[in-house]
Specification:
about 140 residues, three-stranded antiparallel β-sheet
Length: about 140
């Protein structure tokens, strides 16, 4: 729908809808490649004119001194136009595939919405918590 410029509408019932502004619709700028027509390149199935907004993902620069949620049990929310939606914060560093990380986060959110919450099955124990703190990002 859009990667950086989204018009957000607050609809009845606490629903948020995102729309890409007309001049940018179906285009994406890829540094090093320029402006790309997504509809022509990938087909009609790769675009949306509008979509319900149910999840926010924030990409933060990874910091070694910061403690990050490693299991997925810490729920965060963000308020957009007086509607609270879930927020996932993903620490990123050079070399990480952001598109894949965002897609996995969205798919995992969809599974959670349907009742499949794998983090609940992996409740940290003291032994597991130590192992998670010692591992790389």
């Amino acid at each position: 729908m859009a990667d950086d410029a989204v018009e957000v509408q607050h609809l009845r019932g606490g629903v948020l809808r995102g729309i890409c502004p007309e001049p940018l619709r179906h285009y994406i700028e890829v540094r090093g490649l320029g402006v790309i027509d997504v509809k022509l390149l990938f087909g009609i199935g790769a675009i949306l004119d509008r979509s319900r907004i149910e999840l926010a993902i924030r990409l933060d620069a990874w910091k070694a001194a910061t403690r990050y949620d490693r299991v997925g049990l810490e729920a965060q929310k963000v308020n957009i136009l007086e509607v609270e939606i879930p927020l996932i914060v993903i620490p990123v560093s050079p070399g990480r595939n952001l598109a894949v990380l965002i897609e996995v986060a969205a798919l995992n959110y969809r599974l959670r919405s349907e009742g499949f919450f794998s983090a609940e099955d992996f409740k940290p124990t003291p032994h597991r918590e130590d192992a998670l703190e010692d591992s790389a990002p």
